[in-house]
Amino acid sequence: MIQINGQPAPDAIGQTLAAYLANAGYTPAFVAVEKDGVIVPRSQYAETVLSDGDTIEIVQFVGGG
To answer: What's this model's pTM, rounded to 2 decimal places?
Structure first.
């Protein structure tokens, strides 16, 4: 089972990180992604395939005043 931000996400298995982010409504320029405890460089989102057993954390940056 894959977990994304602490929640099971079985539908994400087999997708690239770029595809998952797009389908989930994230803007890649405004997120940081950690896969199994390692930060994934934005340049590798399209090459990084989500697999069974992965733990993914997505942090979205927001502006404020």
So the answer is: 0.91
